[in-house]
Specification:
heterodimer, A: mainly alpha, two-stranded antiparallel sheet, 27 helices, 3% strand, globular, B: mainly alpha, two-stranded antiparallel ribbon, 20 helices, 4 strands
Amino acid sequence: MEYYLPWFILLLPLASAVAITLTSLRKGGVAARLSIGACVLAFVLSAVLFGRDASGVTQFNWISLSDGATSFIADIALRLDPLSRLMLLVVTGVASAIHVYSYGYMRHDPGMGRYFAGLSLFMFSMLGIVLADNLLMLFIFWELVGVSSYLLIGFWYEKEAAADAAKKAFLTNRLGDFGFLLGIILVWALLGTLDIGALKTKLLTDPNALGALATAAGVLLFCGAVGKSAQFPLHVWLPDAMEGPTPVSALIHAATMVAAGVYLLCRLFFLLDVPGSHALVVIAWTGGLTALLAALMAVQQDDIKRILAYSTLSQLGYMVMAVGLSGSADNPSPAMYHLTTHAFFKALLFLGAGSVIHALHHEQNIWRMGGLVRRLPLTFWTFLVGTLALCGVPPLSGFFSKDGILALAQHGNVALFALAVLVAGLTAFYMFRLVFVAFIGPAKSQAPDRAHESPPVMTAPLVVLAVPSVLAGFWGINEYFGQQYGTRPVEHGFLATLIEPFTHAPGAALSGLIATAAGFALAFALYRNAVTDPLPSRLGLVARWLRNRFYFEELYAGLIRWTQDALAAVADFVDRWVVAGLVVKGVQGSVELTGRLLRLVQTGNLQTYSFLFAAGVALLLYFALAR
Amino acid sequence: MASLSFIIFCPLLAALLIAAIPRNFKVLFRLIALGATFLPALAAARLFLGMASGHDGVQYEEFIPWVYSLGITYHVGVDGLNIGLILMGSVVAFAAACVSREITNREKEFYLLLLLMAGSILGAFASYDLFFFYFFHELALVPTFIMIGVWGRGERKNYATFKITLYLSLGALLSLIGLLALYLQAGGQTFNIVELTRRLSANPLSPGAQQAIFPLLMFGFGVLVSLWPFHTWAPLGYAAAPTATAMMHAGVIKKFGLYGLLRVAVPLLPAGAESWLPVLALLCLGNLVYCGLVAMRQRDLNLLLGNSSVAHMGFVFLGIASLSLVGVTGAVLVMVAHGFLAALSFALSGYLHQRLGTLEMAQMGGLLKRLPFIGTVLAMALLAGCGLPGFANFPGEALVLFGAVTAGRWLVILAAWAGLVIGGVYMLRAIRQILHGHLPERWAGVPDAPHAWHKLPYALLLAGLVVFGCFPGLLTKRIQPNASRIVQAVNGPMLADSPGEPEVPGHWLAGGRKVTGHE
């Protein structure tokens, strides 16, 4: 039975996607039931696997080529170990809540069937990444999550903005995947296998097997994570991806797919953490830089979903930085820990934002909200829980996972530690700016007065997600992931867990708390009763830079125009005028000339041509024989 | 029934039958064409499923001596190299007959030529005799020119006909000279490829002769496959061709040149291959990068598809030039995959052209709303064209990239850039322009494919892409022995040749007991 369970988990969503596409694209209700059913069932089966501590590999051969010199074996191989077991549970669990919520959110959309087909396709691809035990398989599902994200961002494809955002997301991810694929090819060329288990064994017996190319391989593999997890410099697609339906933003662009980059780094940690490789340094600084830039950009956004999107970017940067700092301990479980808690509270925040947007009839500007505490009490209180967890307020889950990263940074790199503390402060600032302006402060338009709390099908998932957002710190998640990297799980009591951060690394915990408090205080002072944003007038140029996201979009647009598009224009010109024009016309001209000379035989009659052609062949054959 | 000769001669005899029927019986022509392409497709599927994999021998062989003095025999059969092409070609031929509904004048001649084309190109793939190999291809090529000239579309129809005829005849002529030179140098006693291979591996031609003949074949076949810089006929020709012709030529007939390289040029002239394939590896970048960039600039869907089809040929050239087992297997896989893909794309663009009267992408937009079926399939085809996993192009292109490691690091990087990034850009721009965005008023009444029968050809071609995309092993295990022999013909036999099954790590539940996998 256990042999088949992972296959069931993987293939259930695919079956749902195929069934919906073939039968019920126009029957939204049926599609929703199929998709939700598949997801919940996958969650139950994941829980069974989790409960049994199932581990091992099960595979089906996809391509296998070998001769004496090389062997190329790509399997669809599913691996169960502590990392994938818990990740399965997190992905299917969060996804189940979001699937149910989607039913309420999308109920009146005529494309609901297509929506759930896309959601199921995404689940299939994401579970493939979680279970993959082969680099090529990982890449396959990597691309498939990319395309399902593309389909769902562009769900309202008639909207120009959504269609553009979908295209941008796919192409930016493609850039990352380009590096990722080169990394996979390089690893295969150096080590001769694509099997993750076999690669690990090879590197255990010979840690220097990658040789001088260790850094290159690590950085190229990291490119995949840079694209998918929207790290600097490929971060530009994620905020635009908010054009998709809000539950999609919650599932794909907050909780799971964007975190897949971090999961990838943890899965392939043994390839990054080899002697002589500087890949982890690159990873740590890329993550740190992303965390800081994104937090700064979030400070001046006005769209509720975009604020959350930048916050996601920033938190992903945190996780990536944590992976980069884990080299000394050989254990990146703090990154996975934060990934898990973040999945809970960020999904909660996005669904809360969706509830607000739903209630306000698709108003997303926080400066047209206000006073929602009374109108949407359940949404507000759960949103507040998510905010507190994200800001790292004890004893909520975010406090423990963020503290783990701060402690790592404190031991690893002082500059990154300062940066991480600053980001913690900024996080509290922009999140409470959002909470004060949208929920607590005075109403800034007529819209909030007419708002009503969302139906139970939408609020129930909020409550369900609020529970782990509060409690996940006490579930030993960090220790569970630690097993993957050979550490022994230690049982802590409730109180011991609560004070552990202050005994283990008091400096990190205290500075994190102080920064958070400072951020909160500043937001309180500035935005408690604000009707317009006071920052632009106080900060001037700085605020404008933040608001315009440091002009990255403009920079990239110019860069693309002057490199690839310019090259294409040149190639097209050459093709039109030189290759096709001069050369071909030259050939054509000489043929014309020959034609004129051969006027006598040129009758324009097809039969004559074919006869002459056959005669020519016969003549050649004759010469051949007469030789 | 399921013999190779049936697959070849069913369409050819049906063409004769059509010739004998008076031209008033319009429905009959179509019915005959459908039947005479459907049955071979069925037979080809049976051959594919029934053939034994794991060795490189010729199966389903048929052998009829014809001209003793010259050593010409009618010798057909299948092995890993051509079975995929025969299956793909026969399916594409059926789909092409299906979508020829759009032809409303001179149906008799059209279907006659289509059947002639279908039967001959399958004959070319199945032949193990150089004479028939070449003759059948020529027989398939000539209808292309006529079909573009008579049933073609657009203002540049005549120029396109002229250009494609000129180029392809030139390519065919070059390869003919090469083949004849090869025949003569090998002693002039046999046209049989199996026999030639045996003789030439025992007594290879002098390196000088090989190096003189190989470029004739490489450039001759190369022109037929739109090798850069001899590619400009392709986009223009396909844009002017009627749908079925574009499908058959871009999908099937074009593969002949590649097949010729793998079947004849490389194994028979290994020393020539060794010195000339590096040139091919450089030229293929012209296809991949340059033509990809050109495709980015196209405003007409058919020109875009034509250029992207040229670009895809770069992967096959690169796989062949890599001369590694992985690369050559990938090249054959891409040939089959691209056949399905090119046929599907041109079938869809033909549908759009018929309904919209234009293929100018800037004039389209939001069509997915009006065309849920055609639009979805088009999106899938375009995504398959930029190498999305799940479609057959991905495993092929991936294998080529992995295999090309032996050919050079920069080649891999540039080819991956071309496939993943440039390909992604123009395909997604096309989806964005055609299917997404605002639906213009004038297309508010465009109809989707009405019922299952109209959807069948598209569904069939898509199924080909998906089946081989999800289970490429179906093809690779058949290709491997032949690819391996081609590689060994040039590189010499491998040192530690162990053909057995690769090591399979133990399943983690053996005999009801949990076995921990390799940790």
